[in-house]
Structures are given as C-alpha cells and as structure tokens.
Amino acid sequence: MAWNFLAPLIHAPHRCCRAERYEIRRTIHTALVSCTTAVDQFIPRSAGTTLYQDSPLAGIAQDLNTLVRLFDEILQEEYCDDHGSLDYAEIRQDHSTCDFCGSCLFLSAFLCHTCSQETASPVLICAGCYIEGRTCRCDTMSPVRLGDFPGVLRDRNNAVASLSRSSHFHHVPVEGLVEGSER
Length: 183
Description:
42% of the residues lie in helices and 8% in strands. It has helices spanning 12-16, 24-42, 57-78, 113-119, 127-131, 149-166; strands at residues 87-88, 108-112, 123-125, 142-145. Helix 2 (24-42) runs antiparallel to helix 3 (57-78).
C-alpha cells in the first residue's frame, strides 16, 4: 500500500480548520503496529533459513519503513521533555479533537480546567493552535497528556528493530532510523 499519500494529511486539518474525519495519527500508529507484527511473522526464525522468492516481506517492510518515517513526524510534533510529569486528562479518547481546528488529538494537548467546568466538557486545543496564539476564554490553558508517549515510542522502536532484522533478507534502506530514548 502507498502510505506516502498520508504525509500531507498529518497537518491538513490544522491548516484548514476542518474537523478531521480519519484520525490520521491513530491510523498511522495502528498501521505501524500491524505492519511490525506482519514483518516479524515473515522473518526466518533460524540463521540458515532463507525466504521464498514470493514472500511478501519486502513489500510489507517498505510499507513499514514509510510508516516509521510518518510516525516520526507525529512524535516530533507531540514530544514534550516533561511528558511524564504532565497531568493526565481523563477524557474520552475515541474522538477527542481540537476545539478550534478540529484536528485529532493524539498524545498531548492544552486543557482549560476552568472553561471545562463551565461547559461541562473538556476544552482542548492542539499544540499547533496554542502555538499560534489560540486559547480559551479565560486564557489559562495548561499542557496535558492524553496518551502514553513511552508506549507509542516503544511501538516505533519495535518497528525500527523489525526493519533492521528484516533488512538481511531484502533491501529496504534503514539508514537514519535509530531507536529513540524513552526518557
């Protein structure tokens, strides 16, 4: 599958302030985990074993390589040095979106506790909107974590490790892909 078409969609909802329909960040994460599992299933278990000519490993590994690069963009945008020390926002994760631009919120956001109590629902803004100066009515938003950054980083590192193991059996360039620290 050609995953490169998703690259411009990672930032599209934020740019055009239109509700995100496909939850691109979660879709890429789910596909990354799925492709990692698929690559691992096709890697020969013993050193003397060779792959059959018609093995789908090369195609799946190429997809995984693209997904890792896309996911790296997402992780760079979602990264925060003190992610682990941020308050965890207890919100419904299945459809949490930025209240301003409508983009899917993945691992972190800005939350206003005061406005959230007044509206009886969380007032959440994505990092992109917050950086551009968008905020709530009372202007007292604070960063919160919505997901498990070390967990998704582990998923990403597992994908890189699978690509590295599979590169002995086909040619997919893995330069520049290194395991990240979970700090």
